[in-house]
Amino acid sequence: MNQFQPPPFLRGIEKSMIRKISDRARPDSISLGLGEPDLPTPEVIRREAIRVIQEERSGYTLQAGLPSLRERIAGDYPHMGLSIDQVIVTAGSQESLYLILRTLVEEGDEVLIPNPGFIPYPTIVRMVGGRAVTYRLPARTDFAFDIDDFKRKLSARTKVVICISPSNPTGRVLSAGDLRAMADAVSASGSNAFIVSDEIYRELYYTSERAPSISEFYPRTIVVSGLSKSMRMTGWRIGWLAGDADVVRAALVLHGYVVTCASSISQKAALAAWTHEAAAAREEYRAIFHRRRDHLLGLLRNDLGLRCVTPEGAFYTMVDVGTYGDEMRVAEAGLDHGVVTIPAASFGDESKGFLRISFCADEERLSEGVRRLGAALKSL
Q1: By CB atoms within 10 Å of each CB, which of 15, 67, 283, 319 scores lowest?
Q2: What ranges in 61-114 are assigned the alpha helix state H?
Q3: Which of 159, 153, 158, 156 is CA-nearest to residue 104?
Q4: Measured distance CA(339)–CA(26) in Å, rounded
């Protein structure tokens, strides 16, 4: 019998490094790897989900999603002047990324992605037939935006630019000045490219104000976001994409064939994410992660003497372990000592020599995780 061979666009695509490392962790390990909030979904949303299950019919919604939910999402971007027909509710933000790249990118088109950046970006670009071109967020400047390198990577073949702020994996936020410079550079390039703004972490910030959006500076922006991080709803699978009417209309056709519609129960419960009770829960959540961030950074710097990036958002820091050798070797030693960390080179070669460490754990577990990491470093 002939052995099955995957189609050409899937050959060479393997399970992500995050899953490879996490799957090998022993049962008593402390995970400083996965980017999944450990706190529960706000009670107001859980309560509404129970009510919906018990009292309402849970059939299909419109393919684009509940009009009332799309109206709330559109209201989060008043500067874009969106109608509900310019919003699609998706099965998480990762479906949104696939839909928008599948819609915009044709064979051979160039897609600019950050280096380091979210692991699925280059894979999805490859899946849709595009060519990923990376722009650097240099390690030497703690992964800040490099406008000169960005301009060099733009060309007439650039079809899409992906922008993420706050960043996975670095936690860095692009300032209004960075975003304005990016927008001006794309406009001046003559490429007429769309910018896809990945804003899944935008509500999780440690600065005085929420991170700005590139959509404030560049009209041809498609926003990708969702409730997975801001409302601790990873398993509920509620994301969205919003922007240009013609693009969204085309993406909706694909969405309908891929998933029909996002979960009706999750959509109805998600309406509660725009209540005052949910807003208060979001504020509390930010404060908790702010404390965890400062606790973790203090341990890494003071107890282990490691250089690490101060994130302005998300729940990750990049930790320089280059003096101990290859970051994969360090992560392997961590596994042996019962702590999960992620070799950051899997997010792009700019972060070689770093670990991405998440603070999706309480302070007691963070302390124990860092203690185990220290023991792993001493073993090398």
Answers
A1: 15
A2: 67-75, 93-104
A3: 159
A4: 9
